[in-house]
Design brief:
Elements: H1 2-65, E1 72-77, E2 81-90, E3 98-106, E4 109-117, H2 119-122, E5 134-137, E6 142-144, E7 146-149, E8 152-155, E9 167-168, E10 181-182, E11 188-189, H3 190-193, H4 197-202, E12 205-206, H5 208-211, E13 219-220, H6 224-234, H7 240-243, E14 263-265, H8 269-276, E15 284-286, E16 289-291, E17 297-304, E18 311-317, E19 324-330, E20 340-341
Antiparallel strand pairs: 1-2, 2-3, 3-4, 5-6, 7-8, 9-11, 10-12, 13-20, 14-19, 15-16, 17-18, 18-19
């Protein structure tokens, strides 16, 4: 009787053990399956958050190409909805102009992409068509409107370029480096200069030595002859041939046979050009300070005087005058700059 009971106990024990083993296997498989499924979901979420971060990078590159360097957030919608938070940094220390940092999110997953960029590699300069905005550096506000006038492509805004290490004066002349950069009514470093309202509206005043080399790559300070081409194109009077005559700036003023090139030119061409070029009356700078804001606009040409190399030719516009004037001035004075495409 005891043997039978013992046998029954062994069978029961073995049954319970087998069931326990089987249950453990089932539970183990279930845990593995559940873990595998969770891993698949995590990988899928990670991929989705990566795609969201990538969408933020693409949006940032598009914004930079459009002249917008502001950090932003957004929603990425595909077959699912994710989001991105993008920070655009510039003046990167590793030789790049900056980095784009995009944090993509989907559910509980987060993925960050950091993309270093160089502006000339991003800006599609080969695709530039006159009339498009010219984006030099959206971080510093160097984005210029352009216009095709005749066969020439002109900036329709005053140049705003300032070197990072420039120190701007409100009187006197630059020491050491002969290049001078001025923002009307301001003295100080170049970073704070860009925060001035006169910088945003009127741009920078340059002495001739700075003006001759400040236009961006592919553009240049126009010569007296290039100004004449523009003026003749807009001239619609019967006296165009006598109003806008050639002047050989290499010999002008050197003898009575070669008079100076100064004159008031045309009839209403000044008014036309003020409209086409969106002329801003930024005044001027000379040794003792700034003068004539909103009263006159001076623009350098690239041509020096033959008999006085320290002087260069310029164009003058006045708000109440329909004509314009060609004149020469001391190269250390600060005038506005318009660039023309090469």
């Amino acid at each position: 009787m005891n043997i039978k009971n013992n046998q029954k106990g062994v069978v029961l024990y073995m049954t319970v053990a087998m069931m326990s083993i089987l249950l453990s296997v089932i539970l183990g498989l279930s845990t593995s399956i559940i873990g595998g499924l969770q891993l698949i979901v995590m990988i899928e979420d990670s991929i989705k958050s990566f795609y969201a971060a990538d969408a933020g990078i693409e949006k940032a590159l598009y914004n930079i190409n459009s002249g917008n360097c502001v950090s932003f957030s957004g929603v990425f919608e595909n077959e699912y909805v994710g989001s991105y938070d993008v920070t655009i940094n510039y003046n990167d220390i590793n030789g790049y102009d900056g980095t784009i940092s995009s944090l993509g999110s989907y559910d509980q997953s987060r993925k960050k992409i950091i993309f270093p960029y160089i502006l000339p590699d991003i800006i599609p300069s080969l695709d530039f068509s006159c009339g498009d905005p010219l984006i030099v550096d959206c971080h510093s506000g160097e984005v210029y409107q352009t216009a095709l006038i005749g066969s020439q492509c002109w900036m329709t805004e005053n140049l705003k370029y300032i070197p990072e290490d420039a120190y701007l004066l409100d009187h006197g002349l630059p020491e050491g480096d002969i290049r001078g950069y001025y923002v009307y009514g301001y003295t100080g470093d170049s970073i704070e200069a860009r925060n001035q309202s006169n910088y945003s509206k009127y741009g920078v005043l340059y002495n001739w030595y700075a003006a001759i080399e400040s236009c961006p790559t592919g553009w240049h300070l126009p010569s007296d002859s290039e100004w004449l081409t523009l003026e003749r194109f807009v001239c619609n009077s019967s006296s165009c041939s006598t109003d806008f005559v050639d002047c050989d700036v290499t010999t002008a003023g050197s003898s009575p046979a070669y008079p100076d090139c100064d004159w008031q030119m045309g009839t209403n061409e000044g008014a036309t050009l003020k409209n086409l070029l969106n002329i801003k009356m930024a005044g001027y700078f000379e040794r003792w300070g700034f003068h004539d804001l909103d009263s006159i606009g001076y623009f350098w040409t690239s041509d020096s005087l033959a008999i006085i190399p320290s002087y260069a030719y310029s164009r003058w516009f006045r708000p109440s005058e329909n004509r314009e004037e060609r004149n020469e001035q001391y190269k250390f004075w600060g005038y506005s700059v318009r660039c023309v495409k090469d």
